[in-house]
Amino acid sequence: MIKCVWVMPEQRDENFSLELINRFGFLAKSLEIYAFSIEIQEQYQNEETPHYHMEVHSGLCIDLPSEVGVNALYSATADGQAYDGQMKIRVRINGPVSFGQILAATLFGYYDECIREYYQEWKTEYKEIQFPV
Questions:
Q1: d(CA 88, CA 129)
Q2: Cβ of 5: how many Cβ atoms within 10 Å?
Q3: Considering its fold, how many domains does the chain have in total?
Q4: DSSP letter string, 15-36
């Protein structure tokens, strides 16, 4: 695994990311996908750059013909502060587009599940989810 971009303001961000990568890796392996690239960005509307950005490559990523993604607009609230933001997931694989769609949708589900586990003080409400992009 190669970490290409790794913007993690807190240690729990890295733990959160490694959990996502491990879960994704197990699912990809079950679909016999051994070369993949995943990228996740999260950015509030008032930020110039993403406060969370992860890009990871696994296997021989020279030719990854299938690319799909998920975009989500959300509102996150903690300690009386509300933030509107956007989360983007991109999945590239060396397999069929349908497998990429499964992996992208599942990664979004893992992402949401892990957000609620690792960042319990945040309440997230999705306003719009676009899939596949």
A1: 10
A2: 12
A3: 1
A4: HHHHHHHHHHHHHHHHTT---E
- Pair of tokens at residue 89: 């997931």
Task: Tell me the residue range of the domain where 8 lies.
Answer: 2-130
pLDDT at 131: 86
86: Cβ contacts below 8 Å, ≥ 6 apart: 42, 43, 45, 71, 72, 73, 74
Beta-carbon count within 10 A of 132 CB: 14
* CA-closest candidate to residue 52, choices 104, 127, 118, 123: 118
- Distance CA(12)–CA(5), nearest Å, equals 17
The pLDDT, as a whole number, for residue 133 is 57
- Per-residue pLDDT of 21-51, as tens digits, reads 999 999 999 999 988 999 999 999 999 999 9
Among candidates 118, 6, 109, which has minimal Cα distance to 53? Answer: 6
Higher pLDDT, 69 or 59: 69
Structure tokens at 14: 């890295």
DSSP state of 121: T
